[in-house]
Design goal:
The protein has 159 residues and is mostly helical. Helix 2 packs parallel to helix 5. The two termini are 32 Å apart. A hairpin with a 2-residue loop joins strand 1 and strand 2.
Amino acid sequence: MFGISQVEGHDMYLGLPTFSLQNKRVQFGYIRDKVTKKLQGWKEKLFSQGGKKVLIKAVVQSIPTYTVSCFIILDSIIQDIEAACARFWWSTTPDHKRVHWLKWSELCRPKSKGGLGFKDLSMFNQAMLGKQVLRLITRLDSLIARVLKAEYFPSLGGS
């Protein structure tokens, strides 16, 4: 009508899925795939442990940040991401497996407690969602609070 073409099949918008699938493992598999692709693109033999630490903390663990602030991510997806990070951390070459001397959960402890300070993605997911809840209950005049109130609690006089 106005010369605007309609796009069929929006899968993603702003990096998030636009619709909800029954199979959440498929829906959020793109996060695991991005992390795996990023890790495989780096040649492990070129990095020191310090370099690997920086890459995991600054790049890999920042990939799912926006998604985990909006959705509950399946534990299986989180475990896949953490397993890929652990393989990258402990390996010296892409085709050579090494012993994992510590569990990933030990590496995720704070530096002051003997860990390396990597993010526990499950706890990070809960923290980011908790932040959204706090924003909803402390800013009742925000757009999202008004929309949710009007949709789910119309008897309360959604504005």
